Amino acid sequence: MSKPIRKAAVIGSGIMGSGIAAHLANVGIPCLLLDVTPAQLTEEEAARGLTLEHPAVRNRLAAAAVAKLKKTNPPPLYDEAFAERITPGNLDDHLASIGEVDWVIEVVVENLGVKRELLSRVERYWKPGTIVSSNTSGISIDAMSAHCGEAFRRHFMGTHFFNPPRYMKLLEIVPGRDTSLELVARMKSFCENTLGKGVVLAKDTPNFVANRIGTFGMLATLREMEAGGFTVEEIDAVSGPALGRPKSATFRTLDLVGIDTFVYVADNVYDNVPDEAEKEAFIAPEALKRLVERGWLGEKSGQGFYRKT
Ligand code: NAD
């Protein structure tokens, strides 16, 4: 039996984690927003003589996400009290708090190894009744939780929000082989009635439903662009507003999603579809990988196909 969802923990405070936390806070659910200690000090932190162990540094990623949410979302769009319901913190410092929440949402990088390791750590503090879900774009729910105990796996499922979580109505719920169907039904009802989402129940297949189609279309567009010698601007001109999709121009979307995340998502289908002919369609172009190596990740790094102004 699950508990009513009154308190949540969101792990990973990037594009999606911060957006999901904001959406939860906005419907009145207090949540922890946790992230790892940044790998390096900023120039300013170094100049102040701080170390990676200093609380301000340990909390920097999650605290920055909350500060950004406050700045970029005016009160008419978000309940004024929303930000106060989010407690940013460092994952290592707050891991034990997992035992006190009703829903833990994993929203870290799209990497099976990282997600598996995180779930092991979550399981150590998890209490039966608490739902644990992943926001993965398409990594197998069963593969992610294969090493976890059966009781934990019964409480584990995919809850795939779309970007931006506040505005995108679609949410895929993905049960694994062992997920309790009663918990899936409860989560569906919660997401529809409390979070205002339109829920699609998806199967645990590579990239589920919407991203399998979306990634396919995006990669086909990139191949056509290369073959036809079109520019980024030309492709955006014909793939967004011109088609009546104001927010979905190809390269604007890639910058919003994160180019690194898109490459992980494409690679995941490539690695996991058994059909050789289908694999071909999911080869991420080398040009995207070079942008990632250069640190041009899209809006989150300030530069992708477009420079963020
Ligand atoms: P992101 O790169 O913006 O953020 C990832 C965050 O996870 C970073 O803040 C990073 O520091 C943190 N992190 C990494 N390892 C961690 C760990 N072990 N513990 C705690 N925090 C850790 O990525 P994102 O775009 O927010 O994507 C997160 C998840 O959501 C991925 O699984 C992705 O596939 C999925 N998703 C992304 C989108 C999108 O449009 N970007 C849409 C739907 C789903």
From TrEMBL:
Residue ranges of every copy of the 3-hydroxyacyl-CoA dehydrogenase C-terminal domain listed in the record: 208-307
Coiled coil: none
Residue span, 3-hydroxyacyl-CoA dehydrogenase NAD binding domain: 7-205
Family: Belongs to the 3-hydroxyacyl-CoA dehydrogenase family.
Name by which UniProt lists this protein: 3-hydroxyacyl-CoA dehydrogenase NAD-binding domain-containing protein
Portion of the full-length sequence here: 1 to 309 of 799
